[in-house]
Amino acid sequence: MKKTIWLAAAVACGTLAGSDGVFRYDFGTDTSPLREGYIRVTQGKSRDFQWRTQTKLRSAANKIIDSQENKRRKSVEPPPVYYNALTCDHVSGSGQAELILKVPAGRYIAWALCGHAGRPSREFVWNVQMGGKEINLWKKFGIRELIFPVTADHYGAKILIRTKSSWLMNALILVPEKRWNSFKKGEEFKALSQEIFILPADKLKKWKKIPQPIIRPQLSVKWNDKQLKDGFALFRRGANDPVFPNELPKRDEINAPLRCFAAGNELESLTFTVHALKDIDSVSLKASALAGPGKNKLNAPELRYVRYMYVRPHYTVTDRYFEAPDIVMPYRQPLSLEKGRNLRFWLTVKVPAGTEPGIYSGKVTLKCGSVTKELPLTVKVLGFELLRDPGKIYSIYYNVPMPENVKNSPHTQAWLNNKRETELAGLSEAGFTGVTMGFWATRRKGKDLFILTDNFRNGAKALVKHGITAPVPAGYGEGRLYADNMKKSLPPHLSGMTMPNEAYFKDVEATIKKIFAEYRKNPQWPEPLIYLTDEPDCMPTVVAYLKRLGEIVKRNGGRTYVTADPANKLFAPLFDVVDVWCPSQFTLTPEQMKAWKKKRPGTEFWCYPNSVCGSNNHVTPAGARMTFGYGFWKSEFKALIPWMYQSIGGDQWNYLDAPRMDFLNRTDNDGSPIPAMNFLCYREGIDDARYIYTLQNRIAKARKAGALKAAAEGQKVIDDLSSAIPAQRRYKDHADGVWDTGTMDAWRWKLASAIMKIDAVLNSKGDRK
Amino acid sequence: MKKTLLLFSVAAAMILAAAPLTEEKPLSQLPGARWGGTVAKPSKGQMLTPAKGKTVCFTYPIIYDESGKPKGTSWPRCNLSLPKNLRDWSRYDYFEFNIHTTFNRSDEEFLPVSIGIGGMKTRTLTSMNINNLRQNQWVKVSVPLRNMKKNELVRNIQFHLNARRYFPKDLLVLHLGDFKLVRLIEWQVKGFRMTAPAIFAGRTTLPVEFELLGPGNRYTLPFRIYSSKGGKVRDIKLTANRGFAYHTLSVGKLAPGKYTLAIFPDDKQKRNETPFEVIAPPWKN
């Protein structure tokens, strides 16, 4: 009897709360903010819900704030994320739990929101499994949705939650299954999605959506009857030319064939775009393996598509955004496409070393709604392999994941390990040979000097495993040591800094000694380049400070690195203590660098080309390729080291939250990398440079073999290329003379043709004098 | 007679070689205009411009404090606030003036002075570094207005420099004058560029960019493609709106080889050309 009364009461309450048939739950503490119209769910129980679990449940809440103070910059900034009543709080558990919601029997669709934990500070990956789906939540901020069916019986709806570490839930909405499609298209879902995944309405009002920066003239296109009947058109554009969400194709792009050429030991990208002439519910894609000469095959290409994101025109802007092509997502399931919008597919073909040259053919099967199209896919494999220039370094600012530092969470360890392995493998495959790391010395508990040599050791092991062995710009712990000794922070760019006390310099010397003592014991490590400081001011106090630091490093047998412009005469006192100069542009000409090295041999000139890393513009794919390829070669700089591999402020899938915009690569659910378009264009640029180096290698071989005519013809191609590339300090976009993809590909083919011509001569033993 | 004809031809050639026709609006004598400055205070200039106009003088002393920071501000600046009747710049292509520089250090590697044009609503409508200053010389500066929003009024003109790039005790003295707004009234193309110096055969378009300046709103431009031997391959016309834009030029099918693309091919004054190459593609069709 009691049970019956309880059940009736529960159903009645549930019905009241879900008076429109939809049940809304806000998870948190007894006193945390409760969204209007939502039922409070805590770790306890009530007439609306009940937990069944063997493990302890917790609830927590974060403060809802509109801004935060940046003490270092002395400014007020947006918070990492804008919490609301739903997202600021949650219930969590460290083991399996079952949530019983007192709702009428029936079939529902559950929309669960999990994330924005705001804790812990240490590395931790939450893991939430519900409804046959699984999400991993890395970092303190980031919120995800899980959508799955739930069937309620007379006890209610039972939702089983499992975890490999700990789980958390912020909100849950149960919608009757029959109403789910209309709910998803309705105002509540749209408004809530915008509030949670973009910005709250009152904040978004202060932002202006600006036009997509489409520089090509948008000429009207006359669609033919077939295209209108099918409801879509297909077009092809070079991988390094962006396709904006609503951009129209040019006439010669429509139905252009899907083909490319590639050498051995190369990855090559091909893209094509679906432009919707009507709403399409389902767009799916398959690709076959490619059959070549004899029984040779190439594996089916990797399938991805370009995700459009709201981006800011510069990473510090907080009032304007536009929609831009950005992240190249793995293709896993059919996608929907609205009328007037584009869906760009990105295929990557891998041509291993030793692949038999010839034409390889396959097909791509595209299904848009009920219309199926087969597109021939052709790859011309060239008869040589691309070489890497050992004299050049492609490095990148990178936070090496450290699973070794994780305690008490095997799942977090495994996830971080996968992140590290897959990211380093991806970097190596793209042609990168270096990253940054650090020793991060500090005075632990105000007493002992503590240097994270274990971090470097573990990181170095992982780097070497993946062939990433270039010298590593390594932070020694400047900020922490300064704060420990001076009881205040270093100002940004050291602007207006106070010269530190002698105790600081003693700590620095002790740190440097230790670093190089460790390095001598571990010669397999990549060489640590001591990172004096980042983007310093050029005032006299700063220069005097850096000079002292440089002298410390030099007398302890190390080399120094600084992100500063050697062309700035105010840095003259540092010329003898800096080994690696790294400005943000190619500020010295090859002649100036030669003259410099005559006086100071051993000096290297690196560059951090931030104009194409996404920090100030996400849509510079052609500039990214030209910077990393033709431009870098022309500059004769030693290394490129863009900042940075991955920058995340709040939620990695929201570029409008946090004080500064995120940029470059993202992370998939399993920790593996999801590349940004700019990053894939770096790889294309690196390959352009490899074609140049491979030809130079052949020219040298031809000369040695006495094939002087062939060598001279090859050299003419190199000389013509050098004349054609404009000498620029940077190669960001058209204003800097950046070529379009067609030109970069045409030059690549010229280089390839010259390589094959020399190979033919060398193999035939002709043209010897 | 021959001598007279020759002299006449030379004179005619000199006239023809003169700068394109312009409409100018002087801003030099500015009733109601106010000069102001931070660190760099304006004063009446002691020298006259090359056109015998009055000047305003800005003296930028670079002073550092004990912490090694530039005193006062790191961005000493001076600005000219415009009266209402001089704020509408929408009809003009350039803002021009003459600038004379005196610098205490003898090396002439001046760090740039920057100019910004501020709007009534937008803080900076356009800006530019003035990179061609010369010690003890007058230099003409021409600021293109193409990036400015045409429908926004101009509030002020500001000159500033980054004091952090100068040594302590540096002294920079600028004299400025002959301010004017300029509009070209003869069709001209500036900044002509073609960013595809190599293309595969089969591609029938070339990307070109330029700024079109002139009396009206639209103009049909003549282009010509020459072969590597200098022979004409074909003529092409492109109609463009006044202002800066990227265009797609239809060039038709071209066989592999080296070519030159010329704009205004028959006008010696305005002609500009750029080479490009058509490369046989990896594919047969």
Biggest sheet overview of chain A: 10 strands, mixed
Radius of gyration of chain B, whole Å: 24 Å
Class inferred from helices and paired strands of chain A:
alpha/beta
Q: What low-confidence regions of chain A span 5 or more consecutive residues with pLDDT below 50?
A: 1-16
Shape of chain B: elongated
* Percent helix of chain A: 25-40%
Mean pLDDT of chain A: 93
Q: What distinguishing features does this structure have?
A:
heterodimer, A: 769 residues, alpha/beta, Immunoglobulin-like, ten-stranded mixed β-sheet, nine-stranded parallel β-sheet, 43 strands, 28% helix, globular, B: 285 residues, 2 domains, six-stranded antiparallel β-sheet, five-stranded antiparallel β-sheet, 1 helix
Would you give an account of this structure?
The complex is a heterodimer of chains A (769) and B (285). Chain A has 769 residues and is an alpha/beta fold. Chain A has 15 helices and 43 strands. Chain B is mainly β. Chain B folds into two domains: 20-184, Sandwich (Jelly Rolls); 188-279, Macroglobulin (MG2) domain (Immunoglobulin-like), CATH 2.60.40.1930. The radius of gyration of chain B is 24 Å and the shape is elongated. In chain B, 28% of the residues are buried. Classes of the chains: A alpha/beta (769), B mainly beta (285). The A-B interface holds A 215-217, 219, 250, 252, 257, 259, 261, 380, 495-498, 537-542, 568-570, 724, 734, 737-740, 742-743, 745-747, 749-750, 752 and B 64, 67-70, 109, 164-165, 167-168, 193, 195-200, 203-205, 207, 209, 245-248, 277, 279, 281-283.
What is the topological layout?
The complex is a heterodimer of chains A (769) and B (285).
Chain A: H1 2-17, E1 23-27, E2 39-41, E3 49-53, E4 57-61, E5 68-70, E6 75-77, E7 89-93, E8 97-101, E9 106-115, E10 125-130, E11 133-138, E12 143-153, E13 156-162, E14 167-169, E15 171-176, H2 180-185, H3 187-197, H4 201-204, E16 208-209, H5 225-230, E17 232-235, E18 258-264, E19 266-276, E20 280-287, E21 290-291, E22 297-298, E23 302-311, E24 320-330, E25 335-337, E26 342-351, E27 358-368, E28 371-385, E29 393-396, H6 410-430, E30 434-435, E31 437-438, E32 442-444, E33 448-450, H7 453-465, E34 472-475, H8 478-486, H9 502-521, E35 528-534, H10 540-555, E36 559-563, E37 580-581, H11 590-599, E38 604-607, H12 621-635, E39 639-640, E40 646-647, E41 663-664, E42 666-667, E43 673-674, H13 677-704, H14 708-724, H15 741-764
Parallel strand pairs in A: 1-2, 16-24, 18-28, 29-30, 29-39, 31-34, 34-35, 35-36, 36-37, 37-38, 38-39
Antiparallel strand pairs in A: 1-15, 3-8, 4-7, 5-6, 7-14, 8-13, 9-12, 9-15, 10-11, 10-13, 12-13, 17-19, 19-26, 20-25, 20-27, 21-22, 23-24, 23-26, 27-28, 32-33, 40-41, 42-43
Helix pairs in contact in A: 8-9, 9-10, 12-13, 13-14, 13-15, 14-15
Chain B: H1 2-16, E1 22-26, E2 34-38, E3 42-44, E4 55-61, E5 77-81, E6 94-103, E7 113-119, E8 126-130, E9 138-144, E10 154-160, E11 171-184, E12 188-194, E13 198-200, E14 205-213, E15 218-227, E16 232-241, E17 243-250, E18 257-263, E19 272-279
Parallel strand pairs in B: 13-19
Antiparallel strand pairs in B: 1-11, 2-5, 3-4, 4-11, 5-10, 6-9, 6-11, 7-8, 7-10, 12-14, 14-17, 15-16, 15-18, 18-19
